[in-house]
Write a structure and sequence with these properties.
four-stranded antiparallel beta sheet, 172 residues, alpha+beta, single chain, three-stranded antiparallel beta sheet, 2 domains
Length: 172
C-alpha cells in the first residue's frame, strides 16, 4: 500500500472522528443551556421565579407551569396560572372564608374584581359557588391583582408558589 493512500485514509478517518466529536460537543452545549434534552429532543429552556416578584417582571414572558413547593402544575397561559393559584388558595378553608368576605370590597376602575355573581364582569372566572373574579387584564395587572389585592387581602401566604417561564431570563 502506498503511503499517500494511507495518509489520505487516515486523514478521512480523523476528519470523521472530529466531526463526530464536534457534533457531540454541540449536543452537550445545547443540553447545558437547556435547548435539547439528553435524549436529543428539542426543548425550551425554562427558569423558575417566585410569585412574590414584582409583577412587571413577568410582563412579556410565557409561563410553562406553577410550582407549589415541590409540586408542579403545567400552565401555559397567565389565565391558567391565575386560575390554578386561586383554586389552590380557595381550597384552604380560612382563605375561602376570607375570599367570601372580600366579595364586593375589591374594585377595579369600572367593576368589582371579586364578587358573588358575574353579572357586571367582562371576563369572569368562577372560583366557587357565589365567588367570581374578573380576569380581563394584562399579565402584569392580573398578577398584581392576584397577589397584592386578593391574596394579601385574604391573608394567604404565597411565598411557596413559583412560576416557570419559557426562555432564558437572567436576573442581574
Amino acid at each position: 500500500m502506498n503511503i499517500a493512500r494511507e495518509i489520505k485514509i487516515a486523514s478521512m478517518e480523523i476528519n470523521t472522528i472530529l466531526e463526530q466529536l464536534l457534533s457531540k460537543v454541540e449536543q452537550l452545549g445545547d443540553v447545558a443551556v437547556g435547548h435539547e434534552s439528553h435524549d436529543g429532543q428539542q426543548q425550551d429552556y425554562e427558569s423558575i421565579h417566585p410569585l412574590s416578584l414584582n409583577p412587571s417582571f413577568f410582563k412579556g414572558e410565557r409561563p410553562t407551569g406553577v410550582l407549589f413547593g415541590d409540586e408542579r402544575v403545567d400552565a401555559y397561559t397567565w389565565q391558567m396560572v391565575f386560575k390554578e393559584i386561586l383554586r389552590r388558595s380557595n381550597d384552604d378553608p380560612e382563605t375561602h372564608v376570607a375570599l367570601m368576605n372580600l366579595r364586593g370590597k375589591i374594585s377595579g376602575q369600572k367593576r368589582h374584581i371579586l364578587a358573588n355573581n358575574s353579572n357586571t364582569m367582562r371576563t369572569p372566572h368562577k372560583i366557587d359557588n357565589n365567588l367570581f373574579i374578573e380576569t380581563h387584564y394584562d399579565t402584569e395587572t392580573l398578577l398584581r391583582i392576584l397577589t397584592k389585592r386578593v391574596l394579601d387581602a385574604a391573608g394567604y401566604d404565597y411565598s411557596h408558589i413559583s412560576v416557570a417561564i419559557r426562555g432564558e431570563r437572567f436576573s442581574g
